[in-house]
Design a protein that fits this description.
Layout lengths: L9 H11 L14 E5 L5 H12 L2 E3 L3 H4 L13 H5 L4 E5 L7 H10 L1 E6 L2 E6 L3 E6 L7 H4 L4 E5 L4 H17 L4 H15 L8 H15 L5 H18 L5 H20 L4
Parallel strand pairs: 1-6, 1-7, 2-3, 3-6
Antiparallel strand pairs: 4-5
Helix pairs in contact: 1-10, 9-11, 10-11
């Protein structure tokens, strides 16, 4: 149902729903899920950003240097980091994120949900509870520290002939039927409003730890706290979308999504 104008990529759509279900941090830990889309140009990464802008109240910034600088400076004439304050609680989509300046400031906002402006030697802190959805053709230009702030990373490749024909067939079907997307979008918005108010419990933590241990044993290494927190954020997002508690299925799905995301980062693909 999410982003019906994009054919396929159910994995990305599921991640987007997890992101939309988790708008604000709690007192004790970050809840906001950040997503990075990267890969072959012209394969629809921007379609997801535009959908978030037009249907979910997201802000969309391009790589224009004046719009893409995030430095907190009161003398700036463009919005800069003020975007984060204005869109606190909403997604902020950053196209061509690798071309943006002051990326370290963006990284801090992603982690803490705050940014600082310096004026007259005085630092003023503002809340910036934004969920970042970035898009880039080249993931290699982003620092390891920056990439680690994204909970989910998805790779886009040029479609095969079979996939291209399937996309064209669906486009033609929609043109003939005059299919209206508004009904499905409105229904999903109502569901996501309920999911954002749902705080799932954790069932059987011992079993969940055993599942995580088995997963790490397969990969032959432990994982740090940032990675484990990301797994819990994703599992919590899945539970919210399902209006369920965090059980074995939610954790296993979250582990699968995160491992696939890790493999995309480790490929270090460049276009």
């Amino acid at each position: 149902v999410f982003c019906p104008e994009y054919i396929g990529r159910q994995d990305v759509k599921r991640g987007m729903l997890c992101m939309l279900s988790s708008p604000l941090d709690t007192r004790y830990h970050r809840e906001r899920i950040h997503i990075l889309l990267h890969g072959y140009p012209g394969c629809g990464k921007t379609v997801f950003l535009e959908h978030l802008k037009h249907n979910w109240g997201a802000h969309l910034s391009t790589a224009d240097p004046r719009a893409s600088s995030l430095k907190g400076d009161a003398r700036r004439t463009d919005l800069g980091s003020q975007i984060f304050r204005q869109y606190s609680g909403y997604p902020v989509c950053l196209d061509d994120i690798e071309k943006m300046t002051d990326v370290d400031i963006l990284r801090d906002v992603m982690e803490s949900g705050y940014y600082t402006i310096t004026k007259g030697g005085i630092n003023e802190e503002f809340e910036a509870q934004c969920r970042i959805v970035g898009a880039t053709n080249d993931i290699t230009s982003l620092s390891t520290a920056m990439k680690s702030r994204f909970d989910l990373v998805y790779k886009f490749e040029k479609p095969s002939i079979h996939d291209s024909v399937a996309i064209l067939r669906d486009m033609l079907r929609r043109e003939i039927s005059g299919e209206d997307k508004e009904l499905s979008v409105d229904y999903l918005k109502n569901h996501m409003y309920v999911s954002q108010c749902w705080y799932p419990d954790i069932t059987d933590p011992d079993t969940l730890c055993e599942i995580a241990e088995e997963d790490m044993s397969v990969y032959g290494s432990g994982e740090d706290g940032r990675w484990l927190n990301s797994i819990l954020r994703i599992a919590r997002g899945i539970a919210r979308v399902r209006l369920s508690d965090i059980g074995t299925d939610e954790l296993q799905v979250a582990l699968g999504m995160k491992r696939l995301s890790d493999s995309v980062i480790n490929e270090n693909a460049k276009y």
